[in-house]
Amino acid sequence: MIASVAFRNFKALRNTSLRLSPFNLVIGANGSGKTSLIQALQQLRALAKLPLGDPAAVTRVGGSEISFAFDAPHLGVTARLGCVDDVVCDLLQVDSVNRAEWEDVKAGLATMRSYVFDHVAMAAPAPRASGARLAGDGSNLAAVLARWQRETPAAFDRLQTELTRWLPEFTGIVLPEDAGGLVRLGLKIGDAEGPVMADNLSQGVFYVLGILVLSFDPAPPAVVCIEEIDRGIHPRMLREVRDALYRLSYPAAMGETRAPVQVIATTHSPYLLDLFREHPEEIVITQKHGHESRFERLADRADLAELLREGSLGDMWFSGILGGVPEES
Amino acid sequence: MKIAFLSESPADEAVLRVLVEGALKEKPTVASAGYRARGWPNVLQVLPAVIRHLHFNTDVDTLVVTGDSDDSPVHTEAHDAPQYYHPHCRMCQLRATFRQTSKRFPAAHGRLRVRRVVGVAVPALEAWLLCGVEDSVNEAAWVEGQARGILPYTRAELKLRVYRTERPSLPHEIACAVREAERHRRDLRRLEYDFPGFAALLRDLREPIPKIS
What we know:
Chain A is α/β, with parallel strands linked by helices. Chain A has helices spanning 34-48, 55-61, 99-111, 119-123, 141-151, 153-166, 203-215, 238-249, 270-274, 304-310, 313-319; strands spanning 2-10, 13-19, 23-28, 65-70, 78-83, 89-95, 113-115, 126-127, 170-174, 182-183, 186-189, 196-197, 223-226, 262-266, 283-289, 292-297. Chain B has helices spanning 10-24, 42-57, 90-102, 125-130, 139-148, 155-163, 170-185, 189-194, 196-206; strands at residues 2-7, 29-30, 35-36, 62-68, 115-121.
C-alpha cells in the first residue's frame, strides 16, 4: 500500500525517509519518532477524506513536509502533507497520473487503522451497535466480538480457537448483553461454574484479544498501525504475536486467501526483536541524535551477517550496537 | 527416567521429544516445564542455571540440550580427544559447560549429577528433518561446503523446504517438524549416520545415569 514516507522538519524527523515493507517493526528510544511515523500516516488518512488542498498552499508553507509514495499499482501517485509549523500538518497535495488512481489509494487509506490498546477501556461494557470496527483503544472489544459471533461466526470461531490455544486456561468467550444493549465480555474457564468477567481478567488477556481481533478480522483494513505490540504479553508468547501479525501481512503463508495488510508495529521488547533474526529487512530502527531522528532499516547494515553470528538481535539492540537506544547524559 | 529439555523453541522441543522417545523405545517422564533459550549464545548463557536448578531442585536425571551449529565449526572426532576443547565448536562448548557447572556439585536426589545429553544440528534442526527426504542434506555435505567456501544450502532454504513458507506459524512449524521426526522415530539409523551431531546425542543417551552407588 504505502511504499515510502519522507519527512522534512516534522518533530524530531528533520530529514529522513523510510521505505515501508508489508511488515514493519519499528524499534528505538522513547521520543525518537516511532509514534510520529504513525501520526503522519493517521494524518494522511484524515486529510485524504477531505477535498484536496491548494497546491500553492502546500508549497507556501515551506519548512515542514511529509511525502508519501505508494506501491504498485499506484506508483504514479504521490501525496504531500504541508505543515503550518513543525507539528501541525493540515494541507494535502496529491500528484496523480489520473484521478481514478488517487481515488483507489484514498479508498485504501480510508480503511487504515491505528491502535494503542487500553486494557481499562477494553474491559468496559460496549454498546451493541458500536461493534463495526475495533476502536483505536479497543474500547468496543466486547461489541466487536458480539457482532462477529452474530454475523461472521466462522471468524469468531477461529479467533476463539486461537485464543484458547494461546491461553489454554480459557475454554471460550461469553458475551452477555444487558437490557440497555450493553455487551460485556467474559471468558470461560475449564469446569468453573461461571465465566470470568472482564473486570477480573488480566491486562494481558485484553491485549491478546485485541491482537487476535486484528489478526482474524474478516474485513481487514489496508494498513494497520499498532503501538507497543508486546505490551502486557509474556515473552514466550511473542512468537504467537509475531505470527498473528504475519497473518495480516503475509496471508498466503498462513493459508489465507485475502489481500495482504500492511503492518507498522512498534515495540520496546528485545525478545520480540529476537524473532526477526531471519527477516531483518522487516526491522526499522529510529536513530536519535540530540533533537533529530532518522530511520534505518536493519537489513541495510553492511556488517549485519557478521553481527548475527555473534548473538541475538535483542541483546545487540540493548547493548547499543544497533543504535536505537536512549542517549545518556 | 525423568527428562528435561532445553531448546530454542517449542517446535525444537517437540522434535527432540519424538527422537528421544524413538531412541529409548519408551515414553520417558518429561519435566513439566520446557526450558527455553532464545537462540545461540543464549543456550550457553542459561545452561548453567538450568543444570543447577535441575540438580538441586528437581528429581530430573537427564537434560537433553541441542543447538544449531549455524556457521560455527562442526564438531569432529578430533575434538573428542582427551583434554581437547575447540573454543568455537558448539558441541565442545555445551559439553564444557556441563562439565564445569556440575563438577563441584554434591550428589543430590539420588544421583551424582544430571546426565548430559547433547546434540548439535548442522547447520540447523531442519536439516535433521530433511534427512532421508533429500539425500544432499547431510552433515558431511555441509562440512565439505564450509571447507570449499561454497555452502550447499542455506538455513533459510532448509526451513523453506520443511515448512513450505518463509514465515510458518508456530502450529504449522510444530506440525511439519513432528511429522518429519515421526518418520525417523522407528529407525534412527539414517539420521545417526548422516548427522554425527545427532549420533553424539544418542551416545549420551545410552550412557548410564550417574547414580550414587
